[in-house]
Amino acid sequence: MPTTRRHFLSLAGGVTAAGTMPIVSLRPLQATPAMLTTAIRNVVGEAQLRTGRVKLDIPPLVENGNTVPMTVSVASPMTADDHVKSIHVFNEKNPQPNIGNFYLTPASGRAQVSTRIRLADTQKVVAIARLSDDTFWQIAADVVVTLAACTEEMN
């Protein structure tokens, strides 16, 4: 049976309508401490995490979690032999535990990144630096959030 124009348009309309339907994902609306640990292990693997050399400048109390200023700096000369390769920032309770990954070279001049982040609730923020000798250094800070961000539903 030959395909008629009306039949073809009906099929094309059905495919178009199916393509515009929202996709519902069944992820938790906030991360868990186990998800935080997994995200950190995905970056560092089995390497030991050392404390020190990293400074996390973030307010301990924020009124609005929609825009939280944060600066991560690492004590490093940033030479070809001794520099910071990357800085990774994680959180404990946002929908995604990995806030950001920042990659540096000796040409960066300074091992420092500044940005604004969103925090869903009162939680721990962890910054990890990977140095050129493949050691990992970390620092953690607890942040109290009075007005939470990241509260919209995920699609």
Which helices and strands appear, and what pairs or packs with what?
Blueprint: H1 5-19, H2 33-44, E1 49-51, E2 54-57, E3 61-64, E4 68-74, E5 84-91, E6 98-103, E7 112-117, E8 123-131, E9 136-147
Q: Beta-sheet strand percentage?
A: 35-45%
Unreliable residue runs? none
Number of strands: 9
Structural class: alpha+beta
- What's the helical proportion of residues? 10-25%
State the distance separating the first and last CA atoms. Answer: 41 Å
Largest sheet: 6 strands, mixed
Q: Which geometry do the CA atoms define?
A: extended
Number of helices: 2
Whole-number radius of gyration? 22 Å
The helix-strand sequence is HHEEEEEEEEE
3D structure, described in words:
- The chain has helices at residues 5-19, 33-44; strands spanning 49-51, 54-57, 61-64, 68-74, 84-91, 98-103, 112-117, 123-131, 136-147.
- By secondary structure, the chain is an alpha+beta fold.
- The model has no long low-confidence stretch (mean pLDDT 87).
Keywords:
alpha+beta; 17% helix; 9 strands; 155 residues; six-stranded mixed beta sheet; three-stranded antiparallel beta sheet
Concise overview:
The chain has helices at 5-19, 33-44, and strands at 49-51, 54-57, 61-64, 68-74, 84-91, 98-103, 112-117, 123-131, 136-147.
